[in-house]
Design brief:
By secondary structure, the protein is α+β, with helices and mostly antiparallel strands. The protein has helices spanning 66-69, 151-156, 159-163, 167-190, 200-222, and strands spanning 14-16, 24-28, 36-40, 43-58, 79-94, 100-104, 112-116, 121-124, 224-236, 243-252, 256-258, 266-276, 296-310, 313-331, 343-347, 354-359. Helices cover 17% and strands 39% of the residues.
Length: 361
């Protein structure tokens, strides 16, 4: 028996949330539950996962002397700038407490249902389930230490540089050391160094050491750039309209991914266009079938094209099944209590659709 079926129309929620891990619970129809199981069919939400790269630039201690000694333009002030690197679209299940169902089985039977943490059906008569968020989502990346924060910077400092109290003198000594290291590398490669490495491995270690010291000293003039990535997931709940567009987030060059009301960022548009609505099955005469009495409710979803645009360009597009564009139908409950060949079903956890229907072996 169907308890409730109220399709929410026009509900739009835009949030910034972490992607939650899926957990499962097993419910068995028995005498205590009067051989009934209660569950909810999900709304399909769209997760928009945004990857923003942050470039943090820091001046080196000798940046004033970079043009004089190296002839290059250095980083002159600290800064952080953000740019959009990637967008990933994935479906998710959204709780709709007004769409709950009761499936009633015959007395003495013990079918069971696997439910997720939102009380959505994952399977019946089997513990095999489909997982939410099958799309592999990107992970945030922490910036690595700059070359000036490593042992290479300490090894590159000569005793004379450390003893000098004049920044101009230290810069002069650092520049001289850079050219000395370059000359040493050339001598080793050409085979004319006074103390040549004993073998190829030793030579590579020597060249790597020289390269690290040179990079550290050069960074003291030109500065450093550290790269990290910021990942935020925004969840949008589509309504039943055929076409809809919303600003799901904004991207700021100063703050990265920000919320829709932060006008420091350029808008990231999410567009959903229905492709097909779900249809009820028909009988041999072409007439729509009726919901079976006490049936196991499931969704026959529709589909939509989902895309994201930014600065006038489309970044990503995919086709996604959605329960909001679908219809609810039901299976005869006695399919799952047949003594000889009881059926099992596996559901799509984001739509409530049946992915697989078979016989328990």
């Amino acid at each position: 028996m169907k308890l409730l079926k109220i399709l929410i129309s026009g509900l739009i929620v835009v949030t910034s949330i972490p992607v939650m891990a899926q957990t499962t619970q097993k419910l068995t129809a028995n005498k205590l539950s009067e051989y009934g199981l209660i569950y909810s069919l999900p709304q399909t939400g769209v997760n928009v996962t945004v990857v923003v790269e942050c470039a943090e630039k820091t001046p080196g201690p000798f940046y004033q002397y970079a043009k004089k000694y190296l002839g290059e333009q250095p980083v002159t002030e600290s800064s952080k700038t953000y740019k959009l690197k990637n967008v990933v679209l994935s479906p998710t299940a959204i709780v709709n407490e007004d769409q709950s169902y009761l499936v009633q089985f015959k007395s003495g039977s013990t079918p069971y249902m696997m439910l997720d943490n939102g009380n959505f059906p994952l399977s019946i008569n089997t513990e095999s389930v489909s997982r939410i968020n099958e799309v592999e989502l990107p992970q945030a990346i922490v910036a690595k230490p700059s070359i000036l924060q490593t042992d290479a910077a300490r090894r590159a400092m000569t005793e004379e540089m450390m003893q000098s109290h004049s920044s101009a003198k230290r810069a002069e000594l650092a520049a001289a050391r850079i050219f000395e290291l370059r000359a040493n590398r050339s001598d080793i490669i050409a085979g004319r160094a006074d103390q040549m490495p004993s073998d190829g491995k030793a030579m590579q270690l020597a060249l790597d050491n020289i390269g690290e010291q040179e990079a550290a000293l050069t960074a003291m003039f030109l500065g450093t750039t550290q790269i990290s990535t910021q990942v935020r997931t925004y969840t949008y709940i589509p309504n039943a309209d055929e076409s809809q567009e919303t600003i799901v987030a904004r991207i700021s060059t100063l703050n990265g991914a920000v919320d829709t009301d932060d006008l420091s960022g350029a808008p990231l548009y999410l567009e959903i266009n229905m492709v097909e609505r779900g249809k009820l099955p028909v009988n041999d005469k072409g007439k729509e079938k009726e919901f079976p009495k006490g049936g196991l409710a499931y969704c026959i979803p529709g589909s939509a094209d989902v895309s994201v645009t930014y600065n006038g360009g489309q970044l990503v597009q995919t086709n996604m099944q959605m329960s909001q564009f679908g219809v609810v139908f039901g299976l005869e409950p006695n399919l799952f209590t047949d003594k000889k060949e009881p059926a099992y079903a596996i559901f799509n956890p984001c739509t409530g659709a049946i992915r697989e229907l078979g016989t328990v072996k």
